Queue: 3 jobs
Job 1
Amino acid sequence: MSRIGKKPVEFPKGVTITVGADNVVTVKGPKGELKQAIDRDIKLEVKEGTVELVRPTDQIRHRAMHGLYRSLVSNMVKGVTEGYVKQMELVGVGFKAANQGNVLDLALGYSHNIIFEIPKELKVSTSQEKGQNPIITLESVDKQLLGQVCAKLRGLRKPEPYKGKGVKFVGEVLRRKAGKSAGK
């Protein structure tokens, strides 16, 4: 059995989990509602305060999806109860971030500013303190969407290995390389 898949997902009071037609799981909680389509072979058993996922056989395909869907349901439960927050830092001279609602205006060292539209499901805020790098804070109940948006933001200017300039996560440790003068 999958170590992850066989663990039951516990959910607190105030969260409701329903399995609809076509095996679509709906999780409602204080912060919002999320839906996820689950493979028709995987069965969900909703009990008092827990959800268990059961796979029919030990085929490779079923074993692979068992742990995956358990993690997705667990992430949905955590999202509607606590939510997810990611912070990104702009490292570089003249790098700036400003937001008007869900539209980010980024100055990342190119000849033009980048206008990046954030999906309406996410909340975005920017902050700039004197002597500190600009920080973009993204909040959402959907972990997958949040990660996708962060990856796209990071892809606008990936951190380079020599000076570390670019868009990175707060607390991320970058592997740095020695420059040309290191060989002398």
Note: The CA atoms of residues 51 and 176 lie 44 Å apart.
Job 2
Amino acid sequence: MVTDRVIATVVLVAVTASFPCFVYGAWYIIETEPVTWSVLMHHLKFVVTGLVLTTVPMLVWMAPRLLSQFGGFAMVHAFLGAQAYAMLAFGFTGIVRIFTAKRRHDLYNDYDEDVLLDEIGGDQMDHWRSRLRIGVFGYVFFWILAYGAGFARYVLRYDVLGVVGV
């Protein structure tokens, strides 16, 4: 039987590995002009990989154990994680509208630098772009806080530093 500590270590490694995926995906989409279909797909490969490395351990291992660990630190960790996913959902509402507008005007395949996002999205495009920025920033902010709380829980729960017995 695999111990809790081994599973927790695998989960910690998976969640830790997700952060470089997010950073590279963000850097790539910010630095690459124009955003064509291949650029978008390359960006999404890394972002989706990061989301899988974070979400699968959360759904398979963390969430089912949450109520049995009903305590202060566990609840803080869960609350911060829930806020991260709420911000991701908020940002997703902007992503969908921006994607739809660019797709409708075929800007992923036939990029035209004379066409501005404001023109194709109407009056609401600035609103949707703001939602995207706020959602992404909020997700990363709360993800980092949740990661810190989870890391601290890991260190304390599994006595990584060997100080609990002192």
Note: The mean pLDDT is 86.
Job 3
Amino acid sequence: MAKVKSPVTAAIRVLRQAGVSFGEHPYQYEEKGGTAVSARELGVEEHCVIKTLIMEDESKAPLVVLMHGDRQVSTKELARAIGAKSVAPCTPDTANRHSGYMVGGTSPFGTRKQMPVYVEETILELPLIYINGGHRGFLVSMPPAELVRVLKPVIVKVGI
């Protein structure tokens, strides 16, 4: 079986430029499969697969939220944590426009627009995380400390 060639995306360029040592994990993407499919395909716990969510506050200002694949974001808690009146997920078209990535392939690294990044605090307790590398069917693995070093996210407790 031929080795699948990993894509070179904006996210990969950012990680290389920052000197991050990361693993590349291509897998067979399934439409609307989410983190359950990537976890299954890679043989890892879904809790270690981190989803990148593009949301916006009441003034339509975009933001990035990083959450465990098997958990949801409490938008009420997030709004409270960031001092907003409300926070809601963007439509797929809006998320694509803000991030520069297609939904299902959104990475927090190398986004088109600079956006504040919020990370669920319990993600930082994991020894290794799997996060989108900027292409559908492609995750990268790294210690969460590298994510913090590169993105400088605000740590929040908003998972449910």
Note: The mean pLDDT is 95.
